[in-house]
């Protein structure tokens, strides 16, 4: 048996480890830099008894194999929800997606959106980047009021630097008949998207799903092992604590740029390619409040510039076990930052509270009912699908593969469109199937 080493015990590393165990493979080890598993899907419990996820994570998938795995791991400890997602704009909430529900906004906005759509009818304008794609698909009105400002907040990167080949079912494109029907009948249209129904663990937040991998991996798991150097010729990993691990095949789920930087020897072209990678970090703010939850909403989008966050989740609506016993509820607010956009970590909690008040999710008098605040700073939140991304990934991944290294996962593979929890777990499973069984991967390609 060749020795297989996995770096990172997030969803992808756990998926790979699980599959190695399922196939009866024994010569493998899983190394994680933190003292916990789950990666970006970890959950934390604060001193007041509130549970916090690293962002608004939910469980949904079209992948039958993943859904069966969730059933196996969670069993009956799982809740199902019908999505209630909303958009805050011009002092009111409308249903998501914006392009199917803007008719509930003031008439001047409705006119701008319809005019933009009509002007676009029959036009075959070319587009070169994500910003131009938005204008081409939605017209000036929808672009102006929602698509441009919201995406600028999410990506924290100039939209002209993003490509558009990643979009797929990540963005609801225009269905003019559906839009006109909604306007004429003044109806809500909120069923779009693969996550219109979703699941969530009954206990322990999203992290509970990944903690349940532990029985399958614990004998091969090593925590607090932060990678320092990887020698691809000698096939040796050096950790910051001075220990080393040899491998025949390496499955890496750490950020791709950090993996490349750790390589002791690599061509200059690979170094330069990794320097092109763009990403956004995230400041995740939890607000725990001592009063009954006033809403059944799940999450809300915020395109306007009067709040720092792009999304806020009523996290406590996902499970009754995410707050202390009694009349409590919790918000989880997400704000992106990058080298193009700075955000004050010291000020973000107060700015978040102010944003919640401006959006009428809290009253000023609710400040005294805030019993817990929690801040998570995530260096890597969104892998940005920049213009030359696919060429960069092909160059790097080919080099790595030629050196028996497979880099997969949300940031290991650096493809946002296949970076959800289900995609990430399946990337780990499928790369093991590729290595051991010769099966072609379905989720990830580079």
Report on the structure:
The protein is α/β, with parallel strands linked by helices. The chain has three domains: 4-37 and 213-278 and 386-437, FAD/NAD(P)-binding domain (3-Layer(bba) Sandwich); 42-63 and 195-203 and 279-383, Protoporphyrinogen oxidase, mitochondrial, domain 2 (Polyamine Oxidase, Chain A, domain 2), CATH 3.90.660; 96-185, no CATH class. 31% of the residues lie in helices and 21% in strands. It has helices at residues 11-22, 64-74, 107-120, 130-155, 176-185, 207-211, 214-217, 256-262, 268-275, 348-358, 389-402, 421-437; strands spanning 4-7, 28-31, 43-45, 51-53, 78-82, 85-89, 92-95, 197-201, 221-222, 227-231, 236-239, 244-246, 249-252, 279-289, 299-301, 311-314, 329-337, 370-383, 405-407. The strands form five sheets. It has a seven-stranded mixed beta sheet. A five-stranded parallel beta sheet has the order 9-2-1-13-19. Strand 10 and strand 11 (236-239) form a beta hairpin. Helix 1 (11-22) runs parallel beside helix 12 and helix 8 packs antiparallel against helix 9.
The top-level CATH class of the largest domain is Alpha Beta
**Helix count, per DSSP?**
12
Q: How is the main sheet built?
A: 7 strands, mixed
How many domains, in number, for the residues?
A: 3
Q: CATH topology of the largest domain, which one?
A: FAD/NAD(P)-binding domain
Strand content: 15-25%
Secondary-structure arrangement, i.e. CATH architecture of the largest domain: 3-Layer(bba) Sandwich
Shape annotation:
globular
Unreliable segments of 5+ consecutive residues: none
CATH-level-4 superfamily name of the largest domain: FAD/NAD(P)-binding domain
Cα-based radius of gyration, to the nearest Å: 23 Å
Instruction: Tally the beta strands.
Output: 19
Strand order of the largest sheet: 7-6-15-16-17-14-18
What's the average pLDDT?
95
Helical content band: 25-40%
Structural class, please? alpha/beta
């Amino acid at each position: 048996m060749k020795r297989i080493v996995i770096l990172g015990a997030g969803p992808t590393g756990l998926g790979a480890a699980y599959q190695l165990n399922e196939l009866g493979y024994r010569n493998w080890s899983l190394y994680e830099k933190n003292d916990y598993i789950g990666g970006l899907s970890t959950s934390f419990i604060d001193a007041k008894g509130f549970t916090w996820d690293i962002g608004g994570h939910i469980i949904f998938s079209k992948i039958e194999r993943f859904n069966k795995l969730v059933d196996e791991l969670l069993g009956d400890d799982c809740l199902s929800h019908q999505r209630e997602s909303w958009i805050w704009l011009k002092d009111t909430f409308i249903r998501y997606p914006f392009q199917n529900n803007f008719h509930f906004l003031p008439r001047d906005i409705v006119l701008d959106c319809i005019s933009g759509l009509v002007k676009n009818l029959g036009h075959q304008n070319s587009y070169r980047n994500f910003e131009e794609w938005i204008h081409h698909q939605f017209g000036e009105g929808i672009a102006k009021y929602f698509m441009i400002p919201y995406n600028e907040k999410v990506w924290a990167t100039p939209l002209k630097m993003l490509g558009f080949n990643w979009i797929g079912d990540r963005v609801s494109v225009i269905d003019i008949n559906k839009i006109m029907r909604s306007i004429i009948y003044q109806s809500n249209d909120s069923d779009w998207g693969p996550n219109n129904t979703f699941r969530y663990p009954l206990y322990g937040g999203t992290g509970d799903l990944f903690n349940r991998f532990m029985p399958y991996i614990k004998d091969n798991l090593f925590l607090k092992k932060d990678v320092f150097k990887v020698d691809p010729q000698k096939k040796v990993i050096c950790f910051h604590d001075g220990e080393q691990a040899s491998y025949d095949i390496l499955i890496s789920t750490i950020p791709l740029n950090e993996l490349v930087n750790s390589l002791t020897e690599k061509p200059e072209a690979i170094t330069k390619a990794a320097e092109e990678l763009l990403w956004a970090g995230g400041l995740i703010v939890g607000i725990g409040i001592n009063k009954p939850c006033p809403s059944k909403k799940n999450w809300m989008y915020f395109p306007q510039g009067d709040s720092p966050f792009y999304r806020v989740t009523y996290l406590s609506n996902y499970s009754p076990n995410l707050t202390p016993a009694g009349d409590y509820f919790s918000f989880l607010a997400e704000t992106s930052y990058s080298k193009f956009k700075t955000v004050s970590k010291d000020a973000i909690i107060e700015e978040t509270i102010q944003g919640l008040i401006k959006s009428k999710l809290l009253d000023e008098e609710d400040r005294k009912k805030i019993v817990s605040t929690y801040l998570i700073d995530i260096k890597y939140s969104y892998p940005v699908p920049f213009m030359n991304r696919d060429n960069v990934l092909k160059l790097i991944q080919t080099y790595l593969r030629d050196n028996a290294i497979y880099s997969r996962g949300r940031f290991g593979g650096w493809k946002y469109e296949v970076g959800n929890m289900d995609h990430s777990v399946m990337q780990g499973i499928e790369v093991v199937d590729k290595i051991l069984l010769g099966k072609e991967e379905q989720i990830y390609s580079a």
